[in-house]
Amino acid sequence: MMLYPAMSKLNSYIPNRYMLVNVVARRARQIAEEAEATGMHLDEKPVTLAIHEVADGKLAAGEEAATEDA
Fold first, then answer.
1. How many CB atoms are located within 10 Å of the residue 3 CB?
2. Model-level pTM?
3. What is the DSSP string of the chain?
4. pLDDT in tens for each of the 70 residues of the chain?
5. Residue 46 contacts by C-beta under 8 Å, 6 or more apart in sequence?
6. Taking the CB of the first residue and of the last residue of the chain, which one, N or C, has fewer CB atoms within 10 A?
């Protein structure tokens, strides 16, 4: 069974897997809250969307704290 995106790709953006879990969980909560507030329907689960943001390089370890505080 192959994991997509690969853990090695995710670790290239966030080197610590525990930090990766924290970053993805925070971003997933943000996505879910934004979708609920706007009434937007999500085609994928918030965690999946957050993982893809990390894999695409849109989200790194330091960035999630800045977006949450704003």
1. 10
2. 0.79
3. ---SS-HHHHHHHS--HHHHHHHHHHHHHHHHHHHHHHTPPPSS-HHHHHHHHHHTTS--TTHHHHHHH-
4. 556 888 888 988 998 989 999 999 999 999 999 999 999 999 999 999 999 999 998 987 765 444 444 4
5. 27, 28, 29, 31, 32, 35
6. N
